[in-house]
Amino acid sequence: MDAAVLSVVSIGAALGLGAISPGPSFILVARTAVASSRRAGIGAALGMGAGSLVFATIALLGLHTLLTAVPVLWLVMKTLGGLYLLWMAYKMFRGARDPLALELPGSNGKTMQRAFLTAFTTQISNPKTALVFSGVFAALLPQQVSTGMFIAIPLVAMMIDGLWYLFVAYALSSRGPRNTYLRFKAPLDRLGGTVMAALGIRLIVK
After folding, report:
1. How many domains does the chain have?
2. Which of 32, 67, 82, 136 might form a disulfide with 204, Cβ 3.0–4.6 angstroms?
């Protein structure tokens, strides 16, 4: 497999495993779908995908600039990014068995457009999202980033978040699929934590 394609696939897999582990974005989409409507949940999912596109583009361009212009700053950033991924992995493991409260009284009636804007604003105003993207990119990007990768990686990030949260909105608006997902919350958290820990270690030592 071509190195650029392998990098894109690896980044997509890492972001996908990170996305399926419940966090603030998951809770926002899930609560919107549960407390408002499936349509509002879909709007929130699309907002998350759009926010991921923006953040992935910014992180990719920023990392490329640092890599080529300021090697020392790049070393500091990748070390801090690796430590943050390890901290995130620890939190995933620690909270694996914690219950996930989805019911949010008084939040019903949200429109699809309003849900989209809420999710988009939440996504692009969350510095943790930028750190995750930066950490994953730094760990898995090759030394030379082609033009095709500059286009493909943000689109992949958008599709992963968008499609995953569309599934979340669709499934968690129904009681049966919601209960099934929550039953597997602990192993999904542990899987996501393992991946994040491995990426953090690789980022620090490579």
Report:
1. 1
2. 82
Measured CA to CA, the distance from residue 44 to residue 80 in angstroms comes to 31
Let me know if residue 103 belongs to a domain.
no
* CB contact burial 62-80 (16+ within 10 A = b; e otherwise): ebbebbeeeeeebeebbeb
Q: What is the rounded CA–CA span in Å between residue 153 and residue 8?
A: 6
Burial level of 95, CB count in 10 A (0-12/13-18/19+)? middle
pLDDT in tens, 57-114: 887 877 666 655 666 766 776 677 678 778 878 877 887 777 655 554 444 456 888 8
Whole-number percent of the chain with pLDDT over 70: 78
Judge whether 105 lies within some domain. Answer: no
Residue 98 to residue 203: CA distance in whole angstroms:
29
Q: Is residue 27 part of a domain?
A: yes
Residue 14, pLDDT above cutoff 60: yes
In a domain, 125, yes or no: yes
Q: How many CB atoms lie within 10 A of CB 148?
A: 11
Q: What percent of the chain has pLDDT over 90?
A: 10
What DSSP element (H or E) covers 191?
helix 185-205
